[in-house]
Structure formats: C-alpha cells, structure tokens
Amino acid sequence: MSKTMLGFLAGAAVGALAGILLAPDKGSETRKKIATKANDIKGSVQSTVSDLVDSVKETYGNVRGHAEDLKDDATAKMNAARKDVVKDVKNSFS
Predict the structure, then answer these.
(1) pLDDT value for 35
(2) Which pLDDT score is estimated for 42?
(3) Is this structure's pTM higher than 0.85?
(4) CA distance linking residue 21 with residue 35, whole number of Å
(5) How far apart are CA 35 and CA 41, in angstroms?
(6) Does residue 37 contact residue 17 with C-beta atoms inside 8 Å?
(7) Which of 30, 37, 39 has its CA nearest to residue 12?
(8) In terms of C-beta density within 10 A (0-12 exposed, 13-18 middle, 19 or more buried), how is residue 17 classed?
(9) Using one digit for the tens of pLDDT, what is the confidence trace for 4-56?
C-alpha cells in the first residue's frame, strides 16, 4: 500500500470526525457516530493492512522462487564447467 492510500485514509478519517463534531447533535448521538465511524475506519485499516501483508507474502514467495531458480541454474552451470575441466585435464594427459 502506498503513502498516497494511507494519506487518503487519514484524510477521510479526519474529515469524518470533523463532520461529526461540527454537526448539531446531542452528545450521546455524537459519541455513537464517532464510535461507528471509528469502527468503519478500523475495518478499513485492517483490510488495507491485510492486503499489504498478503502482497508482501506473495512478493516474498516470488522472489524466493526466483532465487531458487537462479541457484539451480548456477549449480548446473558449475557442474557442467567442472565436468569440462575434468575432461580437459584427462585429455591433456592422454
């Protein structure tokens, strides 16, 4: 998740809170509205964080898989080079 999205969520929270506090309601109604908005924002933040965690896990898995592929490729090339060296050494003594 980007800084822009987090800024948007923070701005929305501040705007909602300002709207509630400036509304001509009774104190109990204002507190209920604040609690409701806070729960809405909490759910939104939890969802955003969950999406971020899932994205990081997916990226980690992709990077790890790519690193394993690179390691396997390097190992195969090293083994092939070793075989070539052994073959060249044997041929030089023949």
Answers:
(1) 85
(2) 87
(3) no
(4) 12
(5) 10
(6) yes
(7) 37
(8) middle
(9) 877 877 888 788 777 777 777 777 877 787 788 888 888 888 888 898 899 99
Residue with tokens 């390691």: 71
Please tell me what DSSP assigns to residue 23: S
pLDDT at 88: 85
Looking at residue 21, its amino acid is: L
If we measure between CA atoms, which residue out of 2, 76, 49, 43 comes closest to residue 84? 76
CA distance 25 to 78: 76
Residue identified by tokens 């050494």 is 89
Short-list 71, 15, 70, CA closest to 40: 15
Beta-carbon contacts of 92 under 8 Å, excluding residues fewer than 6 positions away, are none
